[in-house]
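dude i think i finally got it to work??
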Amino acid sequence: MSENNNIISLSHKIEIYPNKKAKTHFRKAFGCSRLAYNWGLAKWQEYYKQGIKKTHLDLKKDLMRSKKLNFLLYMKSVNMPCNNLSLI
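look at this
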């Protein structure tokens, strides 16, 4: 016999009203996350076609190396530690 698990989900809806400076920061932050994800996906597909097995940690290291080589200047313009989290 299977038990019927009753799960109660609680949530809060919060609405924010950012000013122009915050909106600009949010756009840059979301753009950086999207850029990091797309870069990681393209690299993973490239490695996959070559038969190289890489983990998300290897991709993070590659991304950090690229940032240090000024490859991704846009990502440096936004002070965001979550850029690397987009690869997880």
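The chain has three helices and no strands.
im so relieved honestly
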